[in-house]
Write a structure and sequence with these properties.
With 376 residues, this protein is mainly α. It has one domain. The protein has 15 helices and no strands. Helix 1 (23-43) runs antiparallel to helix 15 and helix 4 (83-111) packs parallel to helix 14 (313-330). The radius of gyration is 21 Å and the shape is globular. The relative contact order is 0.18.
C-alpha cells in the first residue's frame, strides 16, 4: 500500500512540529493516576480521602489514553507504507512487554505458594496465559479468585480495547480510502458525533443486553468492547487530522483552555453531582482533549528533559496491578508503606521493561513517529 492518500499534508506550519511534544510525560501522568488510584483503593482504601479522588479526577487516565491513542495511531497508519508495516509496528509496541509481564505474573503466583494452595487446571492456566498475551485479557479463571483482588491483572482489559482500536483504524482508512483528505476528516467527525451517543447510553445498553441474554456476560462483553469508548478515540483522530490548524489555535489560548477544563470538571462534579474519572461526561471529553493537546505542545522539550525519552507509562500501567496483588496476598506490608512500596516496585519494573524489553523491539519499527535510537 503506498503512503495513504487520506493523509493531508502536515507539519508545514511554523507554529508546531507534530513529533515535538510532551505526550510521553502526559501518558506517564495518566498511568500514574490509574496506578495510584488502584493501589490506594485495593491496598488501603482508608487512605483515599475525597479531596484526593477529586484531584485525581482532573487527570482521567483511561480517557486521556484513548484520546491520545486516536491522535497518534491515526498518524501511525498514515505514515505506514503498508498494513503489514502498521500492524507489525503496533505488535512490537504492545506485545513484548505484555508477554514479559504475563510471565512474571505467572512466576509470582507460583513463587508465593498460591498455586500449591488451590486446585487448578493446567489447561485453563495455559489458556489464560494465551488470553493475557493476545486480545482476550478480560478472561479470568475462577481459581485466581483468591489471589489479591481476584484478578491477576485487571488493568489489561484496556489493552484489549486498544487492540480493537488498532483494527478499527485499519478498517476505517481502508473503507474510505477513495475519499479526499477533507472528506475523510468530515466522515470521522460525523462518526465521532454519532458514537458519542453510544458512550452516553452504554450503561443502558449493557443493562438491556444483560436482560436479553439472561446473564451479565453480554453486558460485560459490551463494556469491554471498543464501542463505549470509540468516540474518544475518533475524537483524537479528528484532532490529528486537523492538528496543523487546531494546535496553533489552541496554543494561542493555552492557559484559558486548561482553566476551562479544570473549572468545567469541578462544576460538573460539585454542582451537578455527575461522575468524573473514566466516566467523564461525553461533553467534557473535547475540552479534555484540547487541554491535553495544549499541555502536549506547550514547552514541547520539557518531557524530553525530564524523562530523557524513557517512556515508562505502558510498563507502569501493565505492572501496577500484579504488584498490588502480590502485596495484598503476601501481607508483607500494609497501609501507606504498602502503597508506596507497590508503586515504587511497579515503577522500577516499568523502567526495566522499557530499557531491556521495549526499546530493543521498538528499534525494529519502521516509519516510527518517535524513533528510539537516542534513548538514554
Amino acid at each position: 500500500m503506498p503512503k495513504n492518500h487520506n493523509s493531508p499534508s502536515r507539519d508545514q506550519s511554523n507554529d508546531f512540529r507534530f513529533a515535538e511534544n510532551n505526550f510521553d510525560l502526559i501518558r506517564l501522568v495518566a498511568a500514574g493516576e490509574v496506578a495510584l488510584r488502584h493501589s490506594i483503593v485495593h491496598i488501603a482504601p482508608e487512605y483515599f480521602p475525597g479531596w484526593l479522588g477529586t484531584l485525581l479526577a482532573l487527570v482521567p487516565g483511561v480517557p486521556i489514553f484513548y484520546f491520545l491513542s486516536g491522535y497518534l495511531i491515526s498518524r501511525a497508519w498514515e505514515r505506514s507504507v503498508s498494513p503489514t508495516d502498521y500492524f507489525r509496528n503496533r505488535a512490537l509496541r504492545l506485545f513484548p512487554a505484555l508477554w514479559m509481564c504475563t510471565a512474571l505474573s505467572v512466576l509470582a503466583v507460583f513463587a508465593l505458594g498460591y498455586m500449591s494452595s488451590i486446585s487448578w487446571s493446567p489447561v485453563k492456566l495455559s489458556l489464560w496465559v494465551i488470553c493475557q498475551g493476545t486480545v482476550f485479557q478480560f478472561w479470568n479463571p475462577d481459581f485466581f479468585r483468591g489471589f489479591g483482588v481476584g484478578v491477576v491483572n485487571g488493568s489489561l482489559g484496556t489493552v484489549s480495547i486498544e487492540i480493537q482500536f488498532y483494527c478499527v483504524t485499519a478498517v476505517l482508512y481502508t473503507i474510505f480510502r477513495r475519499l479526499s483528505p477533507n472528506q475523510f476528516t468530515v466522515v470521522l467527525g460525523a462518526l465521532t458525533v454519532g458514537t458519542a451517543g453510544i458512550n452516553v447510553m452504554s450503561p443502558q445498553i449493557a443493562h438491556e443486553l444483560t436482560a436479553w441474554w439472561g446473564s451479565d456476560v453480554a453486558g460485560k462483553l459490551f463494556q469491554l468492547s471498543f464501542l463505549p469508548w470509540i468516540f474518544m478515540f475518533l475524537l483524537g483522530a479528528v484532532a490529528q487530522r486537523t492538528s496543523r490548524f487546531l494546535v496553533p489555535t489552541l496554543l494561542n489560548y493555552a492557559w484559558q483552555t486548561v482553566v476551562l477544563y479544570a473549572v468545567a470538571l469541578l462544576v460538573d462534579f460539585y454542582c451537578w453531582g455527575l461522575p468524573l474519572g473514566n466516566n467523564i461526561p461525553f461533553y467534557l471529553v473535547p475540552i479534555m482533549g484540547a487541554a491535553t493537546l495544549v499541555c502536549g505542545y506547550s514547552w514541547p522539550n520539557f518531557a524530553g528533559k525530564v524523562l530523557h525519552r524513557n517512556d515508562i507509562s505502558y510498563g507502569l500501567y501493565i505492572y501496577h496491578m500484579p504488584v498490588a496483588n502480590v502485596f495484598l496476598y503476601s501481607g508483607a506490608l500494609s497501609g501507606l508503606a504498602a502503597i508506596a512500596t507497590s508503586l515504587a516496585v511497579s515503577t522500577a519494573l516499568a523502567l526495566m521493561s522499557w530499557k531491556w524489553v521495549e526499546v530493543p523491539f521498538l528499534r525494529r519499527k519502521r516509519s516510527a513517529i518517535y524513533p528510539v535510537e537516542g534513548v538514554r
